[in-house]
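Task: sequence in, structure out. Protein: Short-chain dehydrogenase.
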Amino acid sequence: MPRTSVITGAASGIGKATLDLLERRGERVIGVDLHDAEVVADLSTAEGRGALVDAVRKISGGRIDAIYAVAGLAVPAPATVAVNFFGTVATVDGLRPLLADSDAPRAVVVSSMAALMSSDEELVSLLASGDEPGAMARAKVLAKEPATTGGLIYASTKLALSRWVRRHAATAEWAGAGIPLNAVSPGIIATPMTADLIDTEEERKALLNMVPMPLNGIAEPIVVARLLAWLNSEENTHLCGQIVYVDGGSDAVLRGDSVW
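Result:
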């Protein structure tokens, strides 16, 4: 029986590459996005998150095998907080009950190597406590200066998300239920999200000075999709709570001997 997977952010970038890869392998994939997807839902709102779960439950008959929480934003605005952290957590938590009848339930989220960059301690703390109104209010303050403090929003959401995975993966709800929960942290990937940053050779060099990728440079979305597919495959039985950097070496260059 083919596996049934749910992918958010399925209309473009890493999400689309993952959907195409899984479908080529014969899986049933339920794509979720703001447009051009089987399920159209806005993960920046509580209503949209609830609609996602309801739609997937109806389409799947109440049973899925894997969750790919890929959807994300990289704009210096509160919406990035709503989608990247609260939308992602709501996706995996809301869909987790539908994994109960799978022989090999799996879940993976997309974080970012940006979690290693400068972040806002107050925002990260609000995210960790699950305070969405407080986090949105803090992001609104940071967004007033898009070129400086606004740039901390994306990194803060990804840092908080990576920590959320570390803190929940080994709990009774996840590992105790036989569900490996992990995250991938991509470096620079050639997607619509980064198109304006890598449009010219000069821009690419400038970005790679900040995010060094000595192994093969900027990657295509399929590189991340292949890793995501393995993490959510039946072969992955014991990888738990890991943040896997698929970044061409950025983590190794920036953190050296540090392993966390």
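The longest strand covers residues 28-33.
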